[in-house]
Design a protein that fits this description.
Number of domains: 1
Distance between the termini: 33 Å
Shape: globular
Number of helices: 5
CATH superfamily: Leucine Aminopeptidase, subunit E, domain 1
CATH topology: Leucine Aminopeptidase, subunit E, domain 1
Largest sheet: 7 strands, mixed
Strand content: 15-25%
Length: 191
C-alpha cells in the first residue's frame, strides 16, 4: 500500500475490522483475499483480473476444476482456491450482484457474499480475510449503499466465527475508503 493510504481499525470484542485504502488487495498478507469474481470464475476485469494475473495459473486451474464440478457460481455464493503466487494462502471467489435499483434482492445478495466468504474462511480455520468493494465497479452498486451492507454483514458474520479474527476491506481509492470508514464508524457507534 502506498504511504498516502489511510487505515482505520475498530475492535469488536476480540475481533478486528480494518478499513484501508487506497490499497492493492493482491499484495495483502491476510490468510485469504476475496475475489469479486464473475460467475464463470475464469477471470475478468477489475480486481478479478488483477488477482488472476498476480496469482498465476494455479488460480485459474482450480477455478476450472470447480466450474467443471458445480457449473457457474451463483451470485451471493463463494468458493475457495489456492492463492498461487499471492502472499495470501487462499482466494475466496464470490459473485456480487449487478445493481438494478435495489429492488431485485441486491442488498441480500451482497450481504451473502460477505457472510459466505467469512464462513468459508472460518471453515478453513483462517484467522484473517481481506475484501475488495464487491459489486461497486462494473456491476454498478452505489458505493455508499454497498459500504453499509458490506461492513454490517461482515461484522455480523465475524461475531459468529471460531477462527477468523480480522476482516479487512482493502479499497482501491480514497472515495471508496471514506464510504466504508463512515459505515464502520456508524456501526461502531451503535450500542
Amino acid at each position: 500500500m502506498a504511504d498516502s493510504g489511510k487505515v482505520m481499525r475498530i475492535a469488536f470484542g476480540e475481533r478486528i475490522l480494518v478499513i484501508t485504502g487506497p490499497g492493492d488487495i493482491t499484495r495483502e498478507q491476510t490468510d485469504a483475499i476475496v475475489n469479486a469474481a464473475n460467475s464463470s470464475l475464469m477471470g475478468g476485469g477489475g480486481v478479478d483480473g488483477a488477482i488472476h494475473r498476480a496469482g498465476g495459473s494455479a488460480i485459474l486451474e482450480a477455478c476450472k476444476e470447480i466450474v467443471g464440478r458445480i457449473g457457474r457460481l451463483p451470485a451471493g455464493q463463494a468458493v475457495a482456491t489456492p492463492a498461487g503466487r499471492l502472499a495470501a494462502r487462499h482466494v475466496i471467489h464470490t459473485v456480487g450482484p449487478f445493481w438494478g435499483g435495489g429492488k431485485r434482492g441486491e442488498p441480500e445478495t451482497l450481504a451473502s457474499c460477505h457472510r459466505e466468504s467469512i464462513r468459508i474462511a472460518d471453515e478453513l480455520q483462517l484467522a484473517s480475510i481481506a475484501f475488495p468493494a464487491i459489486s461497486t465497479g462494473a456491476y454498478g452498486y452505489p458505493v455508499d449503499q454497498a459500504a453499509r451492507i458490506a461492513v454490517g454483514s461482515a461484522v455480523k458474520a465475524l461475531e459468529k466465527t471460531t477462527h477468523v479474527r480480522e476482516v479487512r476491506f482493502v479499497l482501491f481509492d480514497l472515495h471508496t475508503f471514506e464510504h466504508y470508514a463512515n459505515a464502520a464508524r456508524s456501526l461502531a457507534a451503535t450500542p
